[in-house]
Amino acid sequence: MMALIKRQYDWVLSWAETPYGGYALFVLAFVESSVFPIPPDVLLIALCLGHRKSWFKFGLICTVGSLLGGIFGYIIGMGLWSVVDQFFFTYIPGFTEAQFAKVQGLYEQYDFWVVFVAAFTPIPYKVITITAGVFNINFPMFVVASLIGRAARFYIVAALLYKFGEPIHAFIEKRFNLLTIAFTILLIGGFMLLRYVGH
Length: 199
Description:
The chain contains eight helices and no strands. The protein is mainly alpha-helical.
């Protein structure tokens, strides 16, 4: 499995060297939101390093593609899950029946935050997009949380690469998971503090 993922990783990176990098980024961001194991950050980083002045365009492409892919995942969960569930459990990394049971419990308490955190952090976003449809999570809330989380994630990466170039690339690759989790904790802590002060 790891060898297969490594080949997919190298294949994704190869698109950065072609004139179709932007189109490939959109497709990758779309399919990663429901089925593909390689995150679009890989190609986004490569494209931003090669064309730093186009960082905003690439951030937008990645955000829109991922959001539309998330909506597609929601539709799969809402209308097709009973037909395709065993395919996902068997062949798509990140899908287990135990995870689904846990996610359902989380939705009952933290619906917006579950979607936002998955959209922003390394938590497999595809699990959340499909389960949101399966469990009939409020669709406008799902779209808003996904948009905020995905846009924040991709634009932070793109902006840092535009500003600092190759040094920040090495830093992000080494500490990406830790950085996004820390940012999410700080953001949620800030909202909780505002809520506490408001009372």
